[in-house]
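Appendix B, example 12.
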Amino acid sequence: MFSSRLKWDLRPNSLSLVLEEKRRAGARILDLTESNPTKAGLDYPEHAILDPLIDPASLKYEPSPAGLSSAREAVARYYAERHAAVHPSQILLTASTSEAYSYLFKLLTDPGDEIVVPQPSYPLYDFLAGMELVNIRHYPLRYDGVWHIDFSALEGVITPKTKAMVVVNPNNPTGSFLKRGEADQLQHVAARRGLAILSDEVFSDYGFGDDPGRIRTLAGESPVLTFCMSGLSKVAALPQMKLGWIAASGPGHQAAQERLEWIADTYLSVATPVQVALPRILDASCGVREQVRNRTAANLKLLREQTAALPASILNFEGGWYAILRAPATRSEEQWVTSLLRDQDVLVQPGYFYDFESEAFLVLSLLTEPHTFREGVRRIVEAVLS
């Protein structure tokens, strides 16, 4: 009866079952997976965000497939502030980065074609690709004290059906930025194999420290067809505003933009009020981003201090909202996360959620409120030492 697109296993995993059991029992869970910024205790400039949403201009409907010109100009200024030259005509608004992926898969692929994505990374691609009847192939990120793309393995997963390569910059959850040499090599592979590059840059404003070798964005001039994605979910820590964007560049981007507008015109999904408000929301978002940076830096400092003497280690990372703790191999990854939840009331994510190739890795959100994070880390330390 139902489409083969929906062939996912909907049964709850073991961690979900333990979590449900604990909540039924009334346990107070220390959730170190919290990545919803609106639940993280941030201080939002309410009037600066909400007042533009009642602008009378929102009462006029202009069904522009690419988005209102004023909103696209605001996104172009966002890139200009990051030293990337992007014209408003290169920008198309979407309701989210997920929708941006779906548009790009529609643009670039036919059913049965392939997209290559990094591993480990956020476990969303299989679902998004499955909805478009596209197949996913993984290329590995390797860790030898720093994360880097395994280009030999990347070349090995590309087939005649491959249409695009995804890069997440910085990656989620590894927090690794694309480096200049990697970007050059990635573009060389794309040019030689006739592929587009999809650059997911939602966390690009959240780097730890400065490194001139990092690539903050691939937006702007590009030797290959490139689509950069971001949006208010992370840029302004406002996922509920439902506004993202695609910035197209490189050879053929005008033709791609025309076709993207045809796709977007089928849905017209971005609400007018948030488009009207976008310039002022972006202007007001600087303080929120600074709060996120301060929060993640403080939680990271605490995590490093509390785990320094443990038979465990924090993997090096450069940005984003997550930290990865390598736990002792005395237990499997699943045993670690379920025992922390069952015995310590601490919820963390296992590395296998993100397709880590080995064990045991615990993924913690650095966005967690400080008092919860501090107590949760204390209990993790206690469990490791026991």
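The mean pLDDT is 96. The chain is about 40% helix and 15% strand.
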